[in-house]
Amino acid sequence: MTRDQAVSLWRQWNNDDSLWRHALSVEAAMRHFARKYGEDEEYWGLVGLLHDIDYQKFPEEHLKHAREILAPAGYSDSFIRSIESHGWGICSEVEPQQVMERVLFATDELTGFIAACAYVRPSHSVLDMEVKSVKKKWGSAAFAAGVRRDIIERGAGMLGMPLEELIGETILALRSVADDIGLKGNL
Ligand SMILES: [Fe+2]
Ligand SMILES: [Fe+2]
Predict the structure, then answer these.
(1) Which ligand is closest in space to the CA of residue 104?
(2) Which residue of 16, 25, 52, 137 is most buried, as measured by CB atoms within 10 A?
């Protein structure tokens, strides 16, 4: 499957700009970590791009419809399983097992949290953001209240990666697509 095919499948089921920026953010994170682990960057990227494929149409039944969308489009069982695993303990019974699945689980919420942190910076940018500015907001329950820190921490734990490192690597990933995801700010 090519990235162009994945993008057109995404567009068949979604048209929301913020969901698109989220898809691109998670794709960038997956590509970044694939490079770091020496794994298949294209494959990991597609998993990231399509991980929320059924969310806009079925927000109350998220991931219950991923298979019926992805299987007819030619995506494999293991590809679909990986996507289903990002909702583990939230809206799915499928546990992340491969490193790739654990990265997806850990970075899904984190990309949103980093974006929220970027918006409140003077630069509105991820380009000059450091780990410590994200950590500063971490314990503030009122800030980005919808983001489940516990999920991100569980993901970092599954990867055996310190939270600081997970945040730092994900910031680097998002810098690579800063313009496309609206996080270039005024820099
Ligand atoms: Fe999701
Ligand atoms: Fe997501």
Answers:
(1) 2
(2) 25
What pTM was estimated for this model as a whole? 0.98
Q: Where are the domains of the chain?
A: 3-175
For 155, phi then psi, to 5°, come to -65, -45
What is the Cα–Cα distance from 6 to 12, expressed in whole angstroms? 10
68-95 pLDDT tens trace: 999 999 999 999 999 999 999 999 999 9
Q: Which DSSP letter does residue 55 get?
A: T
Q: Give the angle subtended at the CA of 177 by the CAs of 107 and 97, to the nearest 5°.
A: 25
Mean per-residue pLDDT of the chain: 97
Ligand nearest to the CA of 91: 1
Please state which CATH class domain 3-175 belongs to. mainly alpha
CB 85 within 8 A of CB 104: yes
> Cα(61) to centroid of ligand 1, in Å?
10
Cα distance between residue 24 and residue 17, in whole Å: 11
Average pLDDT value for residue range 165-187: 98
Give pLDDT, residue 70.
Answer: 98
Q: Closest ligand to 18 CA? A: 2
CA 36 to ligand 1 center in whole angstroms: 23
